[in-house]
C-alpha cells in the first residue's frame, strides 16, 4: 500500500494524529502530558507552528495545527522525537514509541475547522474518559469554553471569532450539540479533508509544483459518492451483476472494504471476496470488461 500524500504549503491546516506503537499508552502520568505540551510550545517557538486545538488521550493524541512556514515534517519530527527521547530516558527503554508515521490530514479550514475542533474536543467523552469535554484536563476545550486560562501558544481566535459577543458560551453550546460528523468519512486521496473546490485547488497546486520540478506526487482525485457509482452502474451494467459491479468499482475508486461493507451492510471479508471473484470475471469476459470501463468513464466525466 502506498503512503498517503504529504502536501505542504505556507498556511496549510492539518489534523494530525499519532498512536502508540502496538496501540500502547504513550502518556502514563500527568508529568508525561505536561512535558508533551512543552514540546508543542517549543514547536511554536522554533518552527512557527500555530496550534489551534489539541487533545492528549492515553495511547494517541490529536492536534489541529497550521504551518505558516510550510514545515509540517520539521514540526512533527521535533514533537515526536523529543517526546520519545524523554519517555525512553525516563523509563530506561529504547526503540520506537509511536506507531509508524504520524497521520496528517490537510484541512479545508473554511469548511471543516470548526467541526474538527468539536470532533477533537469530544474525544474524551466518546471514550468515556470525561462527562463533558471541558472537564477533561488534557485538551484545549476548557480554554475555549472559559474554564481555564489558555496557554500563550494556543490560537483560539479563528474559531471563537465565529461566536459573536460571548464566544466562550457560544462555543460551549456548539461543542456539545449532538452531531455525527466524522472527518474520516469525507477524506480524499487518504489525506485531504475539504469540498470539491478545495481539492481542485490542491490538485492545481501539486501540478504547478510538479511542473517546477519541486515535488513529484501522485494525482489527487475526488472519490465519487456511492450514489454516483450506483447511478453509473444502473445506466450501464446488466441487472444481475449490478451490486457486484458497485462493490468492485467502489474499491477501484479508492474506498476500502470496510467503507464499502458499511455502506452495503456487508462484512469487509465478504466485500473482498466478491471483488476478487468479479475481478477474475472481468479478466475473462471482454463484454464485462467493456461495461466496467464505461462505468468508470461516466464517473471520470463529472465530479460528484
Write a concise keyword list for the protein shown above.
single chain, 304 residues, alpha+beta, Alpha-Beta Plaits, 2 domains, 6-stranded mixed beta sheet, 13 helices, 6 strands, elongated
Describe the protein's architecture and organization.
By secondary structure, this protein is of the alpha+beta class. It has a 6-stranded mixed sheet with strand order 2-3-1-4-6-5, with helices on both faces. Helix content is 50%, strand content 11%. It is elongated. It has 2 domains: 177 residues, Transposase IS200-like (Alpha-Beta Plaits), CATH 3.30.70; 75 residues, no CATH class. Helix 9 packs across helix 13 and helix 10 crosses helix 12. Strand 2 and strand 3 form a beta hairpin.
Amino acid at each position: 500500500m502506498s503512503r498517503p500524500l504529504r502536501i505542504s504549503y505556507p498556511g496549510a491546516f492539518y489534523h494530525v494524529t499519532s498512536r502508540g506503537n502496538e496501540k500502547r499508552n504513550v502518556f502514563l502520568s500527568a508529568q508525561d502530558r505536561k512535558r508533551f505540551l512543552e514540546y508543542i510550545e517549543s514547536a511554536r517557538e522554533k518552527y512557527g507552528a500555530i496550534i489551534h486545538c489539541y487533545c492528549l488521550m492515553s495511547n494517541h493524541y490529536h492536534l489541529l495545527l497550521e504551518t505558516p512556514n510550510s514545515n509540517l515534517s520539521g514540526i512533527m519530527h521535533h514533537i515526536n522525537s523529543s517526546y520519545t527521547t524523554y519517555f525512553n530516558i525516563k523509563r530506561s527503554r529504547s526503540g520506537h514509541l509511536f506507531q509508524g508515521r504520524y497521520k496528517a490530514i490537510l484541512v479545508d479550514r473554511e469548511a471543516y475547522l470548526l467541526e474538527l475542533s468539536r470532533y477533537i474536543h469530544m474525544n474524551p467523552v466518546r471514550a468515556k474518559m470525561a462527562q463533558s469535554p471541558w472537564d477533561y484536563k488534557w485538551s484545549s476545550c476548557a480554554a475555549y469554553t472559559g474554564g481555564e486560562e489558555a496557554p500563550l501558544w494556543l490560537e483560539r481566535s479563528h474559531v471563537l471569532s465565529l461566536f459573536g459577543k460571548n464566544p466562550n458560551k457560544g462555543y460551549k453550546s456548539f461543542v456539545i450539540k449532538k452531531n455525527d460528523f466524522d472527518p474520516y468519512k469525507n477524506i480524499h486521496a487518504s489525506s485531504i479533508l475539504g469540498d470539491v473546490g478545495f481539492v481542485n485547488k490542491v490538485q492545481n497546486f501539486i501540478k504547478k509544483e510538479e511542473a517546477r520540478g519541486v515535488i513529484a506526487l501522485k494525482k489527487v482525485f475526488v472519490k465519487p459518492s456511492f450514489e454516483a457509482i450506483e447511478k453509473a452502474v444502473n445506466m450501464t451494467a446488466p441487472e444481475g451483476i449490478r451490486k457486484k459491479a458497485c462493490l468492485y468499482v467502489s474499491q477501484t475508486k479508492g474506498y476500502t472494504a470496510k467503507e464499502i461493507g458499511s455502506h452495503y451492510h456487508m462484512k469487509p471479508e465478504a466485500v473482498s471476496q466478491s471483488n476478487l471473484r468479479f475481478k477474475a470475471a472481468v479478466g475473462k469476459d471482454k463484454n464485462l470488461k467493456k461495461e466496467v470501463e464505461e462505468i468508470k468513464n461516466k464517473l471520470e466525466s463529472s465530479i460528484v
